[in-house]
Amino acid sequence: DAGVIQSPRHEVTEMGQEVTLRCKLISGHNSLFWYRQTMMRGLELLIYFNNNVPIDDSGMPEDRFSAKMPNASFSTLKIQPSEPRDSAVYFCASSAGTGGNQPQHFGDGTRLSIL
Amino acid sequence: AQSVAQPEDQVNVAEGNPLTVKCTYSVSGNPYLFWYVQYPNRGLQFLLKYITGDNLVKGSYGFEAEFNKSQTSFHLKKPSALVSDSALYFCAVRALFYGGATNKLIFGTGTLLAVQP
């Protein structure tokens, strides 16, 4: 079975540009998590959804960040406008169920560099 | 406050020796605990979990972890380390929200395991 698929794997863009990161969940999973990883701050949860509904977006840095689930198997994380401090590796993960007893399955991330 | 602590930034061990990566947690009630491994340029991969039952949990790649409620610990162990085990290891606990369950995980800061040949 295919795992969580993220695209693009690498993105380099200039400050001020809009960035869209994409994530395809594992079939049958109904929870979706977006994380950011940096050397300085480690792994941070940005937002998560259960059954396409955002449950906790307290980790979203500011209004420049937005996340959506247009359908049950796909999600986007958008940054507009982007800033150099947004440079990081962004991961999405999916899991089955909403009770927290199933593991999260991570994609291999998008490495984002904002110049 | 809910938290996970991994007190060692790095653990060094010789190949063939036993390894332990430490994790302690702070959360009320019965914890759901997880270990993940991250190889360079990859996402986190699930190793094992403790939900209920036997305190010794076995997982992927020969790893196991022991849940100790009195010490609020969930240390990761392996009897004989391999060079290929060298990676970043994360412990995580399920978060609670106003005492109720969520499926959000609180991760530790990670421990880099270096296995020398």
Task: Describe the overall structure.
- The complex is a heterodimer of chains A (115) and B (117).
- Chain A has 115 residues and is mostly beta strands.
- Helices cover 0% and strands 54% of the residues of chain A.
- In chain A, the strands form 2 sheets. In chain A, strands 2, 4, 5, 6, 9, 10 and 11 form a 7-stranded mixed beta sheet that branches. In chain A, strands 1-3-8-7 form a 4-stranded antiparallel beta sheet, with no helix packed on it.
- Chain A is globular and about 40 Å long.
- Chain B has 117 residues and is mainly β.
- In chain B, the strands form 3 sheets. In chain B, strands 2, 5, 6, 10, 11 and 12 form a 6-stranded mixed beta sheet that branches.
- The interface between A and B is medium-sized, with 26 and 22 residues.
Radius of gyration of chain A: 13 Å
Termini Cα gap of chain A: 36 Å
| Unreliable spans of chain B | none
Count of discrete alpha- or pi-helical segments spanning 4 or more residues of chain B = 0
Average of per-residue pLDDT values of chain B = 94
Overall body shape of chain B: globular
What's the total number of strands of chain A? Answer: 11
Query: What percent of the residues of chain A sit in helical stretches (DSSP H or I)?
Result: under 10%
Query: Unreliable stretches of chain A, pLDDT < 50, 5 or more residues?
Result: none
N-end to C-end Cα span of chain B: 40 Å
Q: What would you call the quaternary organization?
A: heterodimer
Rough shape of chain A?
globular
> The biggest beta sheet of chain A, please?
7 strands, mixed
- Overall mean confidence score, pLDDT of chain A: 95
Class based on secondary structure composition and strand pairing of chain A: mainly beta
